[in-house]
Every structure is written in C-alpha cells, then in structure tokens.
Amino acid sequence: MSQVTMAAEKPTTLEECLALPLNESELIEVTEKAKDWAIMHGAAMRSKTNFSPDSLNFAPFLLTPSSFPRKEFEKAVNLQTIINRLMHNVAHDEEFLTTTLAETIKVDEFTANLFNIYKKVLASGFGQRISLGILRSDLMLETRCKDLLDENGSKNEENEKPCAYCCWKQVEINTIASGFGHLGPASKAIQSFVLSELEHADKLKNMPDNQALAGICGGMVRAWEIYNNPKAVIMFIVEDVTYNICDQRFHEFYIREKYPHIKVIRKTLTEVHDTGKLGLGKELIIGDLEVAVIYFRAGYEPDHYHSHNEWDARYLMESSTAIKCPSIHYHLAGTKKVQQALAQPEMLERFISDPDEIKMIGKIFTGLYSLDDNDAGHKNYEMALKEPERFVLKPQREGGGNNVYGLDIPDVLKKMSRVERSAWILMDLIKPPISKGYMIRPGGSMPPPLVEVVSELGIFGVVIGDVDNIICNYQAGHMLRTKVATANEGGVAAGLGALDSPYLVD
Questions:
Q1: Which of 248, 284, 289, 463 could bridge across to 322 with cysteines, CB 3.0–4.6 Å?
Q2: C-alpha–C-alpha distance, residues 172 and 191, integer Å
Q3: pLDDT single digits (tens) 368-403
C-alpha cells in the first residue's frame, strides 16, 4: 500500500474547543439548562412525529461549538460577495441557462416546469427587472488538500498528499429558501451560554459575530424600499405545514419589530392561486393587498405543487411587478446541473472578468461531473461504477435527503436509462476532518453520548439588481450544521443534523 493511500485512510481530526469528555454530573446539569435555554429563545422546531401547531421541541444542537480554521472561515466570508455576483450574472444569462439545462429538462419534470415558466415570462417580458437574491454558499473542509506548492509556486505532484491543514470546498449554492438566518445566530447564543456556564467565557472571543437574521431581513427591506409603495407588503411563500417555524417566523417578527410600517403576510402557493390576481400595471394583488416583495420559503420541491393550480400561482407571481426572492431565473441558477457546468475551468471567464477572482473561485470547486447522454457523460458513468466510494450522486433538488452516496450509487445508476441519467450530476465525495461533541436531541439519552462529528458551513449573501446593474451586494452572516461522522445527509430540518457554530482556531 502506498504512503499516500495509507495517509488518506487515517482521518484528520480537529481539536475541540475545550477538553472532553465533561464530568457526568456537570454534563447533565448544563445539558438540561441548555435545552430550556434553546426553547425559551426560539431555537426550536415543530415535531414531525408528534406534530402540533401549539407545541415546539428544541432543535437538535451541539452542546459546544465545533472548531473551524480561522483562515478558511475568513476566506469564505470574503469570497461571498464574488459568489453573489457570479450567481447574479449566471441567472441573467439566458443562453447559458438554456444550453446547460437542455438535457435535464427532457427527463426532470420539475426542472422542466420551472424552465417553462422562465421561457413564458421571457417571452412576455419580465414584469419586474429587479431580483433579490438571498443566497447561501454551503462548504465543507477537505482534508486531502492539493494546494501544496513547491518553492517555485507551481504545483508539485509529489506533494499531493493529505495535510493537517484543511482547505474548504463548495458543496452547493442555495438560491431558494436559504434557511437558518435565525437558527444560525441562535446556535451561537446557546453555545455561548453553555461555555459561560462551564466557566469558559474566555473562549467566546473565538466565536465570530453572526448577524444573519439582520442581514437577510435587511435585504428584504431594501427590496421593499426599491419597490417604492409604502402600502405594499412583503409576502412569505410557505409550506402547507411548517415544521421549521421559528426560523421563518423570526424573520417576519424581526421586520415587524424594526420596521413596524412594513406589513408581512404568509401564503401557500394554493392560497396565492385562490386569492391572487394581477392589477392593471401587473401589480400582484393578494386579496386587497399589493405585494412588493415575495420571499419563497417553499416552492423548491415537487411536493409543494399539488396540481396545476400551484404552478399557475408561480407563473402569476413571476409575471408580476413584485420583487421575487428568488426570481425564476435565480431558482434555475441554483440547480445542480448549472453548478456542475460552472465548475468547468473555462466557464467562469464568461461571468467574472477579474483573473484573480476567477482563480479564487476556481479553487473552491470540488470535482463535478456531467452524466449527460454523450461521450463525456458515459465516461463519467463508467467512472462512477468503477469507484463509487469516491462520489455523491445528486439530483436537481433542494431540501435534503435526495442524494445517493458511495456504494449505493451503482445500483441506482444501473436502473436509469441513459437519458434519465442526465437529470443527475456526480460530485467528488469530500473528506472533512472529524471532531467530537455532544449532540443534544429531543428525546435523546441522558447523559448524552460523546460522538464523532463533521460539519458544513453556510455563508449567507444578499444581492439585489437587474441584468445591467447590481444595486447592493453583501455577505450576511453564517450558519453551521453538524452531523454524526457516519451519516451521509446532514439537514437539521430533515432530522439528520444539529445546530452548531464555528469556534475559530489558528
């Protein structure tokens, strides 16, 4: 066995922010306090197993923050405005979206329905040229860095081996329903309370400030101001049943508290169909209210569209003068197929002019491979069958729980036709560093067990503009999700991960 292979099999670890395990009696006491603190400060969700609109469980959380390299965190924060601009430019490139999604829409009905709305709105002219993007760039640390350079600054192939220093790689960019603007900062608040209770308040300085809720809501308010009708409202598009209620409601309540002159309403796609219409100037009217800004927290998966009515509602909204978050072209820009296309080295030059920015963005992409019905796609298909443990198989979906991992990939791929495969992409499996922590879950055992975990960081960005101009562009806070190291998926709302926050280490 080669040295590189042996090194690759030994997991890289990050040291915890404080010495673990904790004394059992101390652990039980602080855990009970933290559970109550979480519920009383809105770090909570409705139960999927014992649902009641009148009760909440605390959201699963890590008792103490997980370590994250300071340099990589700062790099992610600094890159976000470039990523915002990249995605804005992608969304406004009709030829690129059309060409990139051509094969996918033949076999993926959901993406095809979105694309059909896009083409219809294009044909009739956008009712609103301005879009609001509330994006979240999700990333993981990669322990097998290939950025080691020789003395001349060129890549030294002999030094391409795992290193203790982790670089980060992008998992995906979310352009619709980018959640955890409230739960991200709430995670830091829980863990700050715990560290103080454990007499480690001196460590709080290493937990970065997180103003995600204010930053995201600020984007909606800025869009409302641009719309320029003081009587118009902000409308949240929500699921029929909302489990992740606190994360949504805190956005609404923040706007109402800080900007009491702005009314916020919540509607499902079905309710928009039943009560919505366009005014003489293409204004969106819901009941007797004009809508300035539409913030989609639903509409990103097929189950949200029960019939043609919901698709008609989406088209109605896209045709209107309301500022959408996201507009239909932003939604399409967030598909996995588009992100796979962007990972091609020459493609970034189409959207970014600065060579240094192209280089910085290019470094964060992990391997993304097409499965289209062509020579390149067939070659990637064979690669997946031969070495499935290297990959993740991804469809054009948001919301978690949709991916196929490792050794499960061949069986899934073999059941698809060549054409069906084009609705999926293949991505290199990232090998993140492992750390240890206490994962606190509703109904979990006491004292909670110490488990090995891995984390995924999300950086929020806000961008507002049209095809010609970007009006505002800023980084808007962060969130950290952590899952047990042996789990594939890690969505908190899907019940697989836990809230966390970064503890920066040098």
A1: 284
A2: 27
A3: 888 988 888 899 889 999 999 998 998 876 656 678
